Amino acid sequence: MHEGTKLCHHMETGDTNEYEYRSLVGSLLYLTHSCLDISFVVGCVSRFMTNLQVNHMDVAKHILRYLKGTSSHEILFKLGNTQPLTGYVDADWGRDAYTRGSTTRMIFMLGGYPINWMSKLQTIVAPSTIEAEYRTLSKGAKEVVWLKRLFIELQIGDDAPTKLYKDNQSSMKLVKNPILHAKTKHIKIVHHYVREKVQDGTVEMNCIPTYKQIADLFTKPLGRIHFQKI
């Protein structure tokens, strides 16, 4: 998706084939299981199955052109890499132009290779950036617990804390210390799950510069250079 593009329900109108659009987006959704680089944009176009505009079809066809040009790209897993499980989590506050919802994005790496990723619109509108980021951290902590349990069944991994990389220091400080109680007491208890997992040693928080945040790939349309670098 071109940098700065924002899709909404009220855009340019014209003749569009809804059946063709739904069939195309449905096929693209299957590809996101192996093509992590299209997860964000496919998630965007899938929100307009019942309110199709010309611009939405243009973006969907742009994805096809991208896939054709990168058909030789693949995820390669090599033996011998012992890097532990690490996660990159991020959120983009209020990006959805229609609902003003925030997006939760995360990717987990094992041995330096991607094994699990997600790009999803949050179900509740976050009134602040810190709350959107905090919810993403909680979701990331839940994913860590699920992956660790899976590794136990597969008899791999260890009990060392899993590092979660985040580029928002305010949300990380909130995890370690419930400061500003008056401004955060409205956050649902379920989202404080990450604090418990940090205290029991399951998760370890680490700050990372924004330009090194791999999860940006699932958060917003990036410029060509930054997109290719990630």
Topology:
Layout: H1 18-31, H2 39-45, H3 54-69, E1 86-92, E2 103-110, E3 113-121, H4 129-154, E4 162-166, H5 169-176, H6 181-184, H7 193-199, E5 203-207, H8 224-229
Parallel strand pairs: 1-4, 4-5
Antiparallel strand pairs: 1-2, 2-3
Helix pairs in contact: 4-5, 4-7
CA-based gyration radius: 19 Å
Could you give a short account of the major beta sheet?
5 strands, mixed
Q: Could you tell me the CATH topology label of the largest domain.
A: Nucleotidyltransferase, domain 5
Put simply, the count of helices is 8
pLDDT below 50 for ≥5 consecutive residues: which ranges?
A: none
Shape: globular
**Second-tier CATH architecture of the largest domain:** 2-Layer Sandwich
Name the CATH class of the largest domain: Alpha Beta
Q: What fraction of residues sit in β-strands? A: 5-15%
Q: N-to-C SSE series?
A: HHHEEEHEHHHEH
Helix content: 25-40%
End-to-end Cα distance, whole Å, is: 15 Å
Quick structural gist:
By secondary structure, this protein is α/β, with parallel strands linked by helices. It folds into 2 domains: 18-69, no CATH class; 86-229, Ribonuclease H-like superfamily/Ribonuclease H (Nucleotidyltransferase, domain 5).
Question: Can you characterise this structure?
Answer:
With 230 residues, the chain is an alpha/beta fold. It folds into two domains: 18-69, no CATH class; 86-229, Nucleotidyltransferase, domain 5, CATH 3.30.420. It contains eight helices and five strands; from the N terminus they run αααβββαβαααβα. It has helices spanning 18-31, 39-45, 54-69, 129-154, 169-176, 181-184, 193-199, 224-229, and strands at residues 86-92, 103-110, 113-121, 162-166, 203-207. It has a five-stranded mixed beta sheet. Strand 2 (103-110) and strand 3 (113-121) form a beta hairpin. Helix 4 (129-154) crosses helix 5 and helix 4 crosses helix 7 (193-199). The longest helix is centred in the middle third of the chain and has 26 residues, at 129-154. It starts with 17 loop residues before the first helix and ends with a helix. The model has no long low-confidence stretch (mean pLDDT 78).
